[in-house]
Amino acid sequence: MTENTTIRLRYEKTGRIRFVSHLDDVRLWERAMRRARLPLAFSQGFSPRPLMRFGPALPTTFASSAEYIDVELAEEIIPEDLATRLAAVLPEGYGVLCAEALPGKGESLQAAIVAAEYAVLVEDVSGRFPSGFEAEVVHALEADALPVTIRRKGEEKVVDLRPAVLDARVVPADGAGADVLAAARAATTALPRDLPDHWLWCRLASQPRSARPTEFLSVLPSRPRARLVHRSAQLVRDETGSFAEPIDLSLSQESCDGQIRTQTQGSEEARQHAHAAASEAG
Amino acid sequence: MTTSAHTSQSLWHRIEGVLPEVSKPARYIGSEGNIIRKEPSPEMVRWLLVFPDTYEIGLPNLGIQILYELLNDRADAQAERAYAPWTDMATVMRREGIPLFSVDRHDPARAFDVLGFTFPSELLYTNLLECLDLGGVPLRASDRVEGDPLVIAGGHAVTNPEPIAPFVDAVVIGDGEDAVADITAVLGDLKAAGASREARLTALAAVDGVYVPSLYAPVPDSGLEGEGCSVAPKTAAAPDRIDKRTVADLDAMPYPRRPLVPITEVVHDRLNVEVFRGCTRGCRFCQAGMITRPVRERDPAAVRRTVAAGLAASGYEDVSLLSLSSADYSGIDTVLEDIMSDHGEDRIAVSLPSLRVDAFTVDIAAQVQRVKSTGLTFAPEAGTWRLRSVINKLVTDDDLFAAAEAAYASGWKRMKLYFMIGLPTETDEDVLAIAALATRCVEIGRRHHKGASVTVSVGGFVPKAHTPFQWFGQDPPHELDRKLALLKAATRRSGIKLRWHDSAASTAEGIVSRGDRRVADVIEAVWRGGGVFQEWREHFRLDRWLDAAQACGLDPETNVHRERGRDEGLPWDHIAAGPRREFLWDEWEDAHAARELEDCRWTPCYDCGICTDYGLEHRVGSLTPPAGGSQGTGRVPAEVA
Ligand code: SF4
Questions:
Q1: Same domain for B149 and B212?
Q2: The domain containing residue B330 runs over which residues?
């Protein structure tokens, strides 16, 4: 048997399909790969399935410009070709951002990804940016512990969120994060016309469990709500122990230039911004 | 006519805001592969095709997908889809004032000229009212005014349209494709001319296969105790009898070309391709078989093309060849060979639902069905040959055992057997024989696999309009429960799993299936009492139906459980959807004599009226019955001969 090639894809999920669950994502990508007539490698057995491995699940209702899939192919294929062929068949809202051939099978995304970054549109009960929010964030980062109640397998459990909050800050909408905000905005049409001029940026641990920005909001005294959550980056550790992108962005520039797109609801411009900003953030 | 039907007025921004609150939000976003978002224009007739159950059940519905494509292919029409919002969503929609919407463009129901509902079964009728209410459309046709959409119903259940007659403006009897095209043409002209609602209804009544209930009134004393059971035309514009529509040549309808590929999990999530319509096996309980005659096969070459195009457009990994009995398709071998040679390398699996009960059929399935873990399903329907002769389901015990042998030998470890209880002339012996058959199948299975098992699924029989059993007095729930208890006791052994449908649901279904116009009040009362999604156990309560029936003066003893007389008026006498009434009565008598009737596809015509009265004939590729199996081939089982 010849060696399979593994290709790592970074994709976005924006617009109304943010209401699609992770399980549905899996089925959907499998079908798109078949429709694109890629030389998929299959598992053995009665019910052969394409060999695809996903990164950490994106919670339903979150948008993202940093989701990952490793797919095994029975034949070699130029990563850009794969991205172009997928772009033609993906449901609206999904888009391939980068594709890169991995040496060997690569480390499992589930195990390798240790952190994720999020852009969060925050509002109070009246739909406005909460006053005093920035102080609450600063205060939370100074705390020794941030106990939060989570549900796991139907049971409620209190865990300390503090170690999982790697960084968090309030960023002005016209500042460095404006591009991600624009992308987040493209992901929805339900936002108020006058967007708040600040938003929350945070980097949260994905191990041992994926912490959610909504959990972080729930430990703040004013309990602000997340109007929209957009995952803008997922990170692995490189040889030196620093955070790095799971895909080599410098190498795959060509397939990352934003031309490989499916039709999505947001503006092309916003999506290009999203990608640029996501690269910066990493 | 309203101008609201002309412009798109998407509610998406409001819907998106509430989706984080509800379960399975992907149900409401549309975005399926091959979705059509055709821009409406003022000249077009806008159809909202509504499936009155959940998205998961409704999305794969082939009828809706066919009409969706067919209408959107027309220059004078535009079609979108809606599904009944689950109860959590309905609550939020009412709170926020969001009306029933299409999933394609998220336009409100009232933006459409026609709301077209399809009803595969009767218990969905309360959801018709739920959808109308959510849509802001008056429940009763008599309360609707200019500017309100027309409400049109179709599907097998509405071949007795009377229980929903007051709620709908029109009903389509028979195949929908041509009827919907005709309706569109008629309404398009009238829309351009600015015709009144009344003029539109009158024009619809002139379309073949279309019934406009408001033009008919109950005939006094046509039922028991002076009740108005039958209906008759009030005006000359309404025909005395509504004849069903039949698409004679299915190859002229090569749909769906680009199947909708859901983005969330749904039932039957695979490429569904119809290989033929109609069935003349002649099972006397089966409404589908009676009302879809004659048999119309598609050309195997056309099926091959549809499969290839559908797979390419969808990326599906499974194809299901649909019909009422796919092993009876004369082109089955050709089509399976073609599919395997065209797509075998892509790991495409083929499934054949509704398998005939015989070894020959199992062999076909074994060649193409990849996943053997799910088990094979057969429907012998009754436990003894005598009772199977009564219902004309001509499966011998030996056929079943040979099928079991073939299935277990080919690697299946489970089989599922469907039976009915509460059939005409049924004795306890017939009921207990179900257990004996299942036991024997387990024994056969155990010779091949240690853990072989048989699931026995039992449902209470509900007689349906246009069948020979339409006169039968349905078993009351306590009788069904008694028979079920017998069966439970007799199947308490290893290897048999017994599953049953709630006898209470059979009673509610019985109230509606052969009901007359008075049943509309019962349906409305059940809905007002909160009875939506009646096919869902968590929402069904029989007392709601019984209380509503009592409040409306309907006694189930009289209307459901009593055997009807030969000369009694029936609520659907004006609807010609199946064989002639005289033929059905002869069949009813033959049933009592356990006299079998062979399949008219391969034997001379019995003149049931379907072909003979409408200039139709079977379209089949072969004039000889398929090999193997006794069904309809006249082979009498050894123990009887
Ligand atoms: S008219 Fe004759 S051939 Fe046609 S369905 Fe009836 S019995 Fe069969």
A1: yes
A2: 276-518+554-614
Q: What is the ipTM of this complex?
A: 0.85
- Output the domain CATH number for residue B346: 3.80.30.20
Contact A24 B263 (CB under 8 A): yes
Within this chain, do residues B192 and B283 fall inside the same structural domain, yes or no? Answer: no
First to last CA, chain A: 38
State CA B475 to chain mean position distance. 22
Ligand 1 site, residue B614, Cβ cutoff 6 A = no
First to last CA, chain B: 68
B264 HSE (CA, 13 A, CB side): 22
Tokens found for residue B326: 């796919």
Mean pLDDT of B293-314: 93
Q: Do A24 and B264 touch (CB under 8 A)?
A: yes
Average pLDDT over residues A100-112: 86
Structure tokens at A170: 């309030």
Q: Domain check: are B236 and B294 in the same one?
A: no
Pairing of strands B414-421, B376-381: parallel
Average pLDDT over residues B293-304: 94
Task: Establish if B526 belongs to a structural domain.
Answer: no
Q: Examine the pLDDT at A107 and tell me if it is beyond 90.
A: no
Q: Per the domain annotation, does B604 fall within a domain? A: yes
Report the distance separating Cα B314 and Cα B322, nearest Å.
17
Q: Are residues B80 and B158 in the same domain?
A: yes
Question: What number is the average pLDDT over the span B172-178?
Answer: 97
Structural domains of chain B, count: 2
> What does the angle CA B284 – CA B285 – CA B291 come to, to the nearest 5 degrees?
80
Chain A residue nearest residue B14, CA to CA: A190
Residues B232 and B287 in one domain: no
DSSP secondary structure, B256-287, as one string? -SS--B-SS--TT-SEEEE-EE---S--TT-H
Assign residue B207 the CATH number of its domain: 3.40.50.280
Final residue of a domain: which of B191, B218, B243? B243
Indicate the class that CATH gives domain A5-111+246-281. alpha beta
B426 contact partners, CB below 8 Å, separation of at least 6: B382, B387, B483
Residue to probe by mutation, ligand 1, list B286, B584, B611, most atoms within 8 Å of CB: B611
Q: Ligand 1, closest atom to CA B600?
A: 8
Residues B145 and B292 in one domain: no
Give the minimum alpha-carbon distance from B73 to chain A in angstroms, rounded to a whole number. Answer: 22
Query: Across the interface, do A188 and B16 touch by the CB < 8 Å criterion?
Result: yes
- CA gap A5, A14 in Å, rounded: 28
B409, burial (CB in 10 Å: exposed 0-12, middle 13-18, buried 19+)? middle
> Nearest by CB to B29, which of A19, A32, A89?
A19
pLDDT digits (tens, 9 = 90+) for B192-238: 999 999 999 999 999 999 999 999 999 887 776 667 688 999 999 99
In B, minimum Cα distance to A22 occurs at B264
Q: DSSP assignment of B165-215, as one string?
A: GGG-SEEE-B-HHHHHHHHHHHHHHHHHHT--HHHHHHHHHTSTTEE-GGG
User: Which structure tokens are listed for B567?
Assistant: 């000369």
Q: Which atom of ligand 1 is nearest to the CA of B617?
A: 4
Residues in a beta bridge with B242: B575
B70 in a structural domain: yes
CB distance B599 to B347 below 8 Å = no
Question: Are residues B370 and A47, on separate chains, in Cβ contact within 8 Å?
Answer: yes
Q: At B348, list the tokens.
A: 């495409």
Question: Same domain, yes or no, for B95 and B233?
Answer: yes
Q: Residue B557 and residue B22: Cα distance in Å, rounded?
A: 42
* Cα(B440) to centroid(ligand 1), Å: 37
Locate B564 and state its tokens: 């009807």
How many CA atoms, within 13 angstroms, populate the side-chain half-sphere of residue B351?
19
Query: Could you tell me if B235 and B294 lie in one domain?
Result: no
Residue B21 counted as domain residue: yes
